[in-house]
Amino acid sequence: MKLLITGAHGMAGQSLTQKLKQLNDIRLLTPTKQALNLLDQQAINHYLRAEQPEMIIHLAARVGGIQANIANPVAFLTDNILINTHLLTGALSHKIKNLLFIGSSCMYPKDREILSESDMLTGLLEPTNEGYALAKISGASLCKYINLQYGFAYKTIIPCNLYGPYDNFHPTQSHLIPGLIRKLHEARQMNKNEVVIWGNGDARREFMYVDDLTNFIMLAIQRINVLPQSINVGLGYDYTIKEYYQMAAKIIGFQGEFVYDKNQPTGMQKKLLNISLAKNLGWQAQSSLEYGLKKTYDYFLSLPTC
Ligand SMILES: NC(=O)c1ccc[n+]([C@@H]2O[C@H](COP(=O)([O-])OP(=O)(O)OC[C@H]3O[C@@H](n4cnc5c(N)ncnc54)[C@H](OP(=O)(O)O)[C@@H]3O)[C@@H](O)[C@H]2O)c1
Question: Which of 6, 36, 131 is nearest to 78 (CA)?
Fold first, then answer.
């Protein structure tokens, strides 16, 4: 099978391509953003016409943490809407029948603590990443409409927060886990006595090691026709932000104190995916928090800028 992965050089893409490369019957297409910019509809059409993949795993997106989303909501909405619309309509017009679209748990209403697939479009979104969430919702809806109208199999996988090697460790643009790894590493290097945590540290978050998501994608590739239209993929349990800091501090060797800045935004108090549908398919996340954080810290240490 000829399989196109968009975003193949990002965090999830690196993990997925490593697994797919081990299979003999898959021919992988993994263009970089420079080779195939998904903001350019003509380039997509040209690429799909030339390569004719049989299935697309659409991982590419403008992705960022809370600060990046707050600072640039216009780009998080418009880039992601354009990327998704261009790619999905391009795939449709080239009659590519199978596509996995990657959503995000921020597609769900902000007032729910446990998030089930049927909760989509039943309430207000978290304002700090509303633009990104709206683009994901429109992408998932477009998948559904294409299936209804044309009988294709365009399915949406909705992961919880992810972390792992190839994550973005930028000091201001990163998600919680790479951000706290950098902070704790630098604090240890500079012999600092304290590290500031945004909020009171009690908000709960579900962060899954990226290999667990790509294990699910491997299963989904085989069973795309029987997958539900949208399916949550997460741990099914969560930790407080303080617990993530504590585990990372243990791995990194930071022995100072945590100070809480309650004036900073932390987003929702709790977000936990209901993963019953994924469990029904026989899947469950396998990586412990300690294992995932160690692997991620090892990757961070290998970066030239670290
Ligand atoms: N990370 C998370 O916590 C998380 C949680 C839930 C869902 N997701 C979703 O999972 C998917 C993978 O996320 P990730 O963490 O692996 O993200 P990532 O590391 O930021 O990778 C995203 C990839 O998309 C590419 N890309 C961005 N704009 C593009 C464009 N215009 N044309 C072509 N490629 C473009 C990026 O290329 P460049 O690097 O060259 O810009 C990058 O390779 C995304 O759809 C994301 O929304 C992520």
Answer: 131
> To test the ligand 1 pocket, which listed residue (15, 59, 173, 176) has its Cβ within 8 A of the most ligand atoms?
59
Pair 127, 51 in one domain = yes
Distance (angstroms) between ligand 1 centre and the Cα of 172 equals: 17
Question: Is 280 part of any domain?
Answer: no
What is residue 140's predicted lDDT score, i.e. its pLDDT? 98
Domain count, the chain: 2
pLDDT for the residue numbered 270: 86
Q: Which residues of 3-16 are buried (b: 16+ CB within 10 A; e: fewer)?
A: bbbbbbbbbbbbbb
Residues in the chain, pLDDT under 50? none
Verify that 183 and 295 share a domain, yes or no.
yes
Write out the residue range of the structural domain in which residue 184 sits.
176-204+238-273+289-302
Handedness of CA 30, 34, 39, 40 (dihedral sign): negative
Look at residue 106 in the predicted model and tell me its pLDDT: 93
